Amino acid sequence: MFQLKTFREVYRPLHFMNLLIGMGCFEYSGEKRAWKLAEIVYAIVYSILAAYAGFYIQSELLVYCTLTKELMAWFLMSFRVNSFLSILLIIVTRVKIESLRSAIKLIETSDQRMENMGLSMHRSMHYKEQINLLVVCGAVFVGFTATTCHWQLTSTMPMHIKIILGSATYLPLILITTCDVTFYFWIRYLSMKFYQLNSLLRTMLTTTIDSPMHKRILKLMYDFEMKRLGKENIHVANGNANTMRAVKQIHLQLIKTARTINDYYGTQVLFITCNVFGFLTMSLFFAYKILFSDLTNERFQSHFSPLALYVLFYMSKLVIVNHVCIKTSNEALDTGDLVCELYEPSTSKEFRAEIRDFILQMIQNPLVFTACGFFDLDNTFIHGLVGTIGTYLVILIQVSEIDIEDDSVANATMSTTTVTMI
Question: pTM surpassing 0.90?
Answer without folding.
Answer: no
